[in-house]
Specification:
This protein is of the alpha/beta class and about 270 residues long. About 50% of the residues lie in helices and about 15% in strands. It has 11 helices and 7 strands. It has helices at about 30-35, 40-55, 60-75, 80-95, 100-110, 125-135, 160-175, 190-195, 210-215, 240-245, 250-265, and strands spanning about 10-15, 115-125, 140-145, 150-155, 185, 200-205, 220. It has a 7-stranded mixed sheet with strand order 4-3-2-1-5-6-7. The longest helix is centred in the first third of the chain and has 17 residues, at about 40-55. It is globular, with a radius of gyration of 18 Å. About 45% of the residues are buried.
């Protein structure tokens, strides 16, 4: 709640490289391998994709190719099994990747009475548990089509680029958020629509393109660089940060295979 206007306020956080230090799409490759959903070759390629992601990110064409491979690979997977794997391994995998600065900022927004929403192109089976772990109010994520308890390989809603802004507008209308008073945080130029839809956008660890946009628009830029285990630290609001806040599916190996193949073809 914004005390000056009486309107409800939300802070929208991108996930990968904004709240966590790696790709949520790629983080679960090992447990998926151990449970027989993917093979060893896919695990190795997803590790390569993680390296590429951390070094340079991906452009829109690469992301679309990744999406196509993800949807094809996960067709037939049992939704209950995927959710169980994520639940059992979530803290071991994601806990050490969360930026200390992000946990502090989330705590500050909550202390200010703001809702916190995690917004990600990763699937809701991964994003929702991570959002819960972070203490977020809710999440917006990619939704896969399910029939008879299994993924069909089709996408119901792809929470990426302009679609993130669409989802945020819909949530704002449903919850009574005044977007002019809301905040958004992201690292990628593909999230420019998400940042532009709120009154208080901030670039976090921005890629080159987003850094240029932020400079042109006069958006603040933050650097998060300290991943820390949530178990070892319970964040409390900081005066400085409070002042600042006032102003499909994790088919990770598919993403790795797609990214690896794209990079190899381009280098070849």
């Amino acid at each position: 709640m914004d005390p000056s206007s009486g309107a409800r306020v939300a802070a929208f956080f991108d996930l990968d490289k904004t709240v966590i230090a790696k790709s949520s799409l790629l983080a679960f490759s090992r447990p998926f391998f151990q449970e027989g959903l993917i093979n060893r070759r896919a695990v190795l390629k997803s590790a390569y994709a993680q390296f590429v992601f951390m070094q340079s990110g991906a452009d829109a064409d690469q992301i679309e190719r990744m999406r196509q491979h993800i949807t094809a690979l996960c067709a037939g997977w049992d939704v209950g099994q995927v959710r169980s794997i994520v639940e059992e391994t979530l803290h071991d995998i994601v806990d050490p990747l969360v930026y200390k600065e992000a946990t502090q900022l989330i705590a500050d927004h909550r202390a200010a009475g703001h809702d916190v929403v995690v917004v990600s192109a990763s699937g809701q089976e991964i994003v929702a548990p991570i959002a819960d772990m972070l203490g977020a109010t809710q999440s917006l994520a990619t939704r896969m089509v399910v029939a008879d308890g299994r993924y069909t390989g089709e996408v119901d809603f792809y929470c990426y680029a302009e679609n993130k802004a669409v989802a945020i507008k819909q949530l704002a209308a449903a919850n009574g958020y005044d977007l002019a008073d809301c905040h958004a945080y992201s690292d990628s130029a593909t999230d420019e629509p998400m940042l532009a839809v709120v009154g208080h956008p901030t670039a976090v660890n921005p890629d080159r393109a987003l850094r240029k946009v932020a400079a042109q628009q006069g958006w603040p830029v933050l650097t998060f660089s300290d991943p820390v285990s949530l178990r070892a630290r319970i964040p409390t609001p900081s005066g400085t940060a409070v002042a600042v806040t006032a102003v499909g599916l994790g088919a990770v190996a598919a993403a790795g295979v797609a990214w690896y193949g794209i990079r190899r073809r381009r280098r070849g």
